[in-house]
Design goal:
The protein is mainly α and 421 residues long. The chain has three domains: 82 residues; 136 residues, Cytochrome c-like domain (Cytochrome Bc1 Complex, Chain D, domain 2, Orthogonal Bundle); 154 residues, Cytochrome Bc1 Complex, Chain D, domain 2 (Orthogonal Bundle). The chain is 45% helix and 1% strand. It contains 14 helices and two strands, in the order αααααααααααβαβαα. The chain has a two-stranded antiparallel sheet. α1 runs antiparallel to α2. The radius of gyration is 28 Å and the shape is flat. The two termini are 29 Å apart.
């Protein structure tokens, strides 16, 4: 508010100077050519000055409304992030960081600032997110597979566990920072958080409802929800659309943007250790950033190198003893194509990959080097492939154990530091 008030004062001074300037120009130049008397010069100057004043007034009204909207959105996010012991970093100008040259390293600060949140809808969505009554047996909620506090928005299990103890086929993706993902689910079949929210509730293994209409009918029997939906959505009340919107709105508040990495990109040269900086450079030089790009480290996310693509990638590209040891190629699957996951909070979201069979992050880094980049590690090399697209029949590049450790240290900087209070 102080900066905005100061901006208005400066603006008024500029307007007054502008009016005097126009009057002077008119009095000394234009009106002389028109041979106007003194009174005519004054009237002519005031007329032109009034036009400038009207334009500037409209401009300041626009700026005031825009600033007010951004301020309310920021307050909404600060409130929700505070509940999770998180905070939004200040969106200050990025300082020149000599270690960032050559790669487009980005913070989540600006994407966060661009988000707009309906606070009331988010509060309602949070209650729905934790409500087990949305499942057929009353034992599973969204939070069952997406634990915000303990497991970085996942469940810490190889694959998800649904109603009646049923085991799902794939690992639960993190819901944190999902607001920035252009597609949802491992196969990218959902194009929005609203579309994704519908899937688990009507999946017979996950939450078990026959249809979304069944969920709506259940909620309409609850006097509290009937009142809450009316307060948030007005006369439309509890509908399928409003149900999905509420849950998705809450999920858009689950943001982790104040990591050591974000601080480093913003100019704090001490935010990363020398080993983490070394790992950051290695992450870029060997090609990890080709896919894990943008402020959310996902080709499926905002502002990535491949912005506009669907963020899907064949996995594994190169077969090896890793793909056989960890069953990385899905059986009975028509496609080996998966959405590129975000690497934010990666230290909290083990086990890794779509089948959750890898528990160690350093091992996961080595698997990715071999399977996606065609590199070799101490014990594993990619199978020989030779066609028009790529070749690994020649001696592949080597990723040492120390390289892997350095990259892991860098990946640790992508997790938000928890409040120690």
């Amino acid at each position: 508010m102080t900066s905005l008030a100061g901006f208005h004062i400066v603006g008024l001074i500029v307007i007054l100077c502008g009016l005097l300037g126009i009057w002077f120009i008119v009095g000394s130049d234009l009106s002389k050519g028109l041979k106007l008397p003194l009174l005519g010069r004054i009237v002519f100057g005031i007329a032109l000055g009034s036009g400038v004043f009207a334009f500037m007034l409209k401009y300041f009204i626009f700026i005031t409304v825009e600033e007010s909207t951004k301020r309310r959105a920021a307050e909404f996010h600060k409130r929700f992030l505070a509940e999770q012991n998180y905070s939004i970093p200040p969106t200050t100008a990025i300082k020149i960081n000599p270690n960032l040259r050559g790669a487009n390293w980005q913070s989540l600060a600006q994407p966060v600032a661009n988000l707009k949140t309906n606070l009331s809808a988010a509060e309602l969505g949070k209650e729905l997110f934790y409500d087990k009554a949305l499942s057929i047996n009353g034992e599973v909620s969204c939070a069952t597979c997406h634990d915000i506090v303990k497991f970085g928005g996942t469940d810490g299990k190889p694959t998800a566990t649904g109603v009646f103890g049923q085991i799902g086929p794939r690992n639960s993706p993190s819901v944190k920072n999902a607001a920035f993902m252009k597609t949802q689910f491992w196969d990218g079949r959902a194009k929005s958080l609203e579309e994704q929210a519908k899937g688990p509730m009507t999946n017979p293994i996950e939450m078990g409802k026959q249809s979304l209409g069944d969920v709506v009918s259940r909620l309409k029997q609850d006097e509290y929800y009937a009142k809450a939906f009316n307060q948030v959505y007005g006369k439309t009340g509890i509908t399928e659309t409003n149900l999905l919107n509420a849950i998705a709105t809450y999920e858009r508040t689950l943001i982790t943007s104040d990591t050591p990495y974000d601080k480093y990109v913003a100019g704090d040269l001490k935010a990363l250790s020398p080993q983490q900086i070394k790992g950051m450079k290695k992450f870029y030089s060997i090609g990890c950033k080709n896919c894990h790009d943008g402020p959310d480290f996902s080709r499926a996310g905002v502002n990535s190198l491949y912005n506009g693509s669907d963020g899907l990638r064949i996995f594994p590209v190169y077969t090896s003893n890793y793909s056989r040891q960890y069953d990385l190629i899905e059986k009975n699957s028509k496609s080996r194509t998966f959405r590129i996951p975000s690497l934010r909070n990666i230290t909290e979201t083990a086990p890794y990959f779509h089948n959750g069979k890898v528990n160690n992050l350093e091992e996961a880094v080595k698997i990715m080097a071999v399977s996606q980049l065609g590199m070799a590690t101490k014990n594993v090399s990619p199978d020989c492939i030779n066609n028009n697209s790529f070749s690994t029949c020649n001696k592949p590049k080597y990723l040492s154990d120390d390289d892997a450790k350095d990259i892991v240290e860098f990946l640790k900087s992508l997790s938000q530091e928890k409040n120690k209070n």
